[in-house]
């Protein structure tokens, strides 16, 4: 597999030397802009002596216990996930997802009867780039699985179930719900099908649930609700970046399979970044508070309502069930690349072409190429201005 270039590097190359036609508005980065919780600064100051020592890779009891209670409350999982055995803090899920691919290779070697030749790692398509970076680091074949209309834009698990040779050599499957960019949410049945495949074919599921708290009306079901009291083959990834507008805190967690985590912790203790102690204290406080998360959802919902009013039915998109992106079908107006350039040049609106977030699949189709992605992270007025400009630029020829 070729070394990947990030979608943002590709975009910078595409728009190099092209001046924005109006004051620039950037809708490319999935970086939350709503206020972070007011208490974060005080907690970091109160714990500042914790910057002196090296932080332990397993974090603090307080962080893991808080996360265990948060999981129990959010997913009604009783004592399935314990602070002692089932949780590891992460320096943001980006590094966790990347290092997980290395963990999967080591774990697969301990599974009796698991083929070790020619390993494959399954990814959704479009996908988050650190999954592909992990597959690249492992020299594993990255197999991109397109979502389709029929599968609610998530990888089609019924079709995948027929590919037994591929599944037998699969060591890990990165599966995101809510999905970035489409915002689709896996049902409990989807999660159950995925778990059954993982156990039958002995691979790890890396469930990327970092958008789990950003939803329109109904909380997305989590993989831990579908596992019937048994977390083997499952690691779920969560983050405070989107939930709490704390992308710069670099704090999240992995939870699930205790055997995988024990082995992975040994590796992580040599190579992965820890989370500084004052930041773990702040992260725990953020997980103890839901008021700011509710406000966050309200603000996103307000922007989706504005999008509905502004874009109306003239442009082709579906209100996503989760996440904070708009995945706009622009086929009627040209290629994603041409539309991206035009929006920047005429309207000063910077978007990301869908094809930069996906790869050509085994049928040589890039499922992103009819789309652009808009991140609705800026304040309401800025987002509304961008959407109005985008609409006029595309429709008023
Ligand atoms: C799907 C997905 N997974 C993981 C991440 C990583 O988030 P963080 O490292 O901030 O937890 C992102 C960030 O944009 C994302 O979109």
TrEMBL record:
Originating organism: Cohaesibacter gelatinilyticus
InterPro entries listed in its UniProt record: Aminotransferase_I/II_large, LL-DAP_aminotransferase, PyrdxlP-dep_Trfase, PyrdxlP-dep_Trfase_major, PyrdxlP-dep_Trfase_small
Cofactor dependency: pyridoxal 5'-phosphate
All copies of domain Aminotransferase class I/classII large, residue ranges: 25-376
Entry keywords, A to Z: Aminotransferase, Transferase
The protein's name in its UniProt record: Aspartate/methionine/tyrosine aminotransferase
A molecular function (GO) term: transaminase activity
Pfam families in alphabetical order: Aminotran_1_2 (PF00155)
Domain of life: Bacteria
